[in-house]
Amino acid sequence: MSSRRVYFPFSAIVGMDNAKLALLVIAVDPTISGVLLSGDKGTGKSTLVRALANVLPEIPVVKGCPFNCNPFNPLEMCDYHYELWSRGEKLEVEYRKMRVIDLPLNITPDRLVGSIDVERTLREGRVVFKPGLLAEANRNILYIDEVNLLEDYIADLLLDAAASGWNIVEREGISFRHPARFILVGSMNPEEGELRPQLLDRFGLYVDVSASSITEERMEIVRRVEEFHRDPISFMRKYEESEREVREKVKRARELLPEVELDDDLLKLIVDTVIKLGIKTHRAEIVTTKTAKAIAALNGRRRVTLDDVKKAMELALPHRMRLSPFEPPSRKLEEVMRQVFGEEPENPPPSPQENFRESSIKREPSKETGTASSSESLSRGSGGTGSMGGSDNVLGRSLPESTRQEHLPLSPPRSGESLAGGSFTCTSRTRTGVAIAAQRGAIVDSIPPPRSGDIVDVDLYASIRQAILRSPRVPVVITQDDIRVRVRRPERPHLHILVLDASGSMYARTKLKLASSLVNSIVRRSYVEKTLVSLIVSRGREARVLLGPTRSYSKLLETVHNVEIGGSTPLSDGLCKAFHVAKRFLEKYRNGIVTVYVITDGKANVFLRGSMDDDLKFLQELYQRANVKLKLLLVKTRHGLDITSVRDKLRSWVSMLRGEVYTYYVD
Questions:
Q1: d(CA 445, CA 221)
Q2: Which of 173, 255, 280, 499 has the highest Cβ tally under 10 A?
Q3: In this structure, what DSSP letter does residue 41 have?
Q4: Confidence category of residue 119, pLDDT binned at 50, 70, 90
Q5: Using 50, 70 and 90 to split pLDDT, how confident is the model at 613?
Q6: In whole angstroms, how far apart are CA 37 and each of 148, 184, 557?
């Protein structure tokens, strides 16, 4: 207790058994490469990771080495100590506790990878490298809270280091490298956005963390947190013995791990399961095997059991099954594991054939409208009701990929490509480009200024570094050639608002199938562009905002799937609520972009001000004052039953606001 650092003890955390096990597993075998904890806010993810530091064992390092070099393994030494070792010189050894290094979301590239040590360079008259956070993280745990919000350019640097195990710096006249073999631990709230697939694959294990639903557990959590806040020191002392036991357990497991064996029949079971799940990466079976051995070692056994393999699969496979960010993998994993281990499900899920009957939708090009035809006709009138997860409702389901790409204009086309219903221009944010001297946005680098024009947004520190590289002596003289300006990555948040007509007139299977495809295409585009999405459903007497601005695309699709269909069409109210969602977004992000997608058959019959004409006049006053783009996606039949004057008024209103109109037909 000599340190003044206060932390919640690892062994005092209630529940979260899978998350605890995953963290202990990577402490036993760091080559598993890390853990991702995904779950709602306030479930204790960050508390658990930071508590891990106290139960991590000590590691041998070369005394005084800023890179935590392993004195017993030349493959884990920096170039300087490798040279000493190769000459046969004795390296002085000391033991340090493994640490949890926090990586802040606003970290700069210089702080992450390292840069020039200005003070030592001036004092010693030679260029001296100043290690960054990756040097501290070598042979330790690098923790990223809200990892899904990490900027792409920082994620790219992390991926390079994680893939090679080395941090290579080639910039500002510096050529330097050092080992960077860290264990990556991340936590995230999926509602705030999805994680890049490349970064997701770097996490060996994945745990879905949720709040406990057991009354006694939640009561105990409250008691322990209150006790900790009253007297943290006494609370930590209370758990010192249990912390020591966990630490010793990890230490013994590390010593036992090389002796743990996995029988060939269990290895074959792992490989067969991975193949059945359709996982294409070999990392899946490698990580599962290592995890099963680590679990056996934690339990003090030298042979892996079937239960170890099952638990390892639960931790190592779910996130590797996602072919897209919209497919929750848990059900498929459960089904395959039941088949492999001979367990029968209590309530087997219905097959797609039981849920709905397939029908084809084909695009027929038209000069003015996009069209879609189907062999099915309108099956219900405006009074129909149902559930989007029911047997007659398919709005939560997507069409086959070939059909979807065949007729929908919402997948990102080439800019300016002519589509049915008008010209469609891709407005995605630039994620790889940068703006020089933009005055706003995250700083990603510093470069010489342009040859012509004013020099603005000068990076003084980078300019001084460049002058020191040219002449490392005092006083520092900055010349024109030394000046560096900041390179910024501009951020312009974009929100897609989906206003979905879920009234009874949309209850025809063909309309729902088409609406499903439209929703899926918009969400896929949002994922590619990393835009926010929001969902408003119009049905009954009023519209409801079911999902505020979020990057949780899978949650939006799940919400759509569970929406009930039926009742009247309060389309005006949906447009009004979309305006208010857009207004709040633009008040928060002054330079934001909002696109409202209205998916409807145009049969509005519930009005805000007595008639559709009055409603559109009122809505026009709202939308003319807002920087909002409108896209109307009309779904209609070819027959006389689908004639409505409201649709024509809506089409004219959108055109008047310079929006875009797309029309799709179903037979």
A1: 45
A2: 499
A3: T
A4: confident
A5: confident
A6: 11, 11, 22
What pLDDT score does 427 carry? 28
CATH of region 257-341, choose from 2.40.128.50, 2.40.50.140, 3.40.1050.10, 1.10.8.80 = 1.10.8.80
Packing angle of the helix pair 571-588, 612-624 (nearest 10 deg): 10
Question: Can you give the pLDDT at residue 419?
Answer: 28
Q: Topology of 362-422+493-666 in CATH? A: Rossmann fold (3.40.50)
Q: CATH homologous superfamily of domain 10-57+98-243?
A: P-loop containing nucleotide triphosphate hydrolases (3.40.50.300)
In the block, residue with structure tokens 């040859």 = 451
What mean pLDDT comes out for the span 133-155? 86
∠ CA 651-652-658, nearest 5°, is 95
Q: Residue 25 is encoded by which pair of tokens?
A: 């597993």
List residues bridging with 630 in a β-sheet.
Answer: 596
325-334 — which CB contacts under 8 Å span 24+ positions? 325/194, 325/197, 325/527, 325/553, 325/554, 326/520, 326/523, 326/524, 326/527, 326/553, 326/554, 326/557, 327/554, 328/554, 328/558, 330/208, 332/277, 333/277
3-state SS string over 192-254?
A: HCCCCHHHHCCCCEEEEECCCCCHHHHHHHHHHHHHHHHCHHHHHHHCHHHHHHHHHHHHHHH
What does the pLDDT look like over 583-612, one tens digit per residue? 988 888 877 889 999 998 888 888 888 888
Structure tokens at 441: 């946005």
CB 568 within 8 A of CB 576: no
- Which of 99, 111, 252, 283 is flagged as catalytic? 283
In the predicted structure, residue 159 carries a pLDDT above the cut 90: no
Nearest Cα neighbor of 627 from 647, 657, 662 is 657
**Cα angle at 431 between 428 and 432, to 5 degrees?**
130
Tokens 């992000």 correspond to: 589
Distance, first Cα to last Cα, the chain: 76
CA atoms within 13 A on the CB side of 585: 27
Which three-class secondary structure state does DSSP give residue 130?
A: strand
Beta carbons of 631 and 602 less than 8 angstroms apart: no
Rg value, the chain, Cα: 29
- 305-308 LR contacts (CB < 8 Å, sep 24+): 306/266, 306/341
Active site annotation includes 541: no
The domain locations on the chain are: 10-57+98-243, 257-341, 362-422+493-666, 435-489
Neighbours of 490 (CB within 10 A): 15
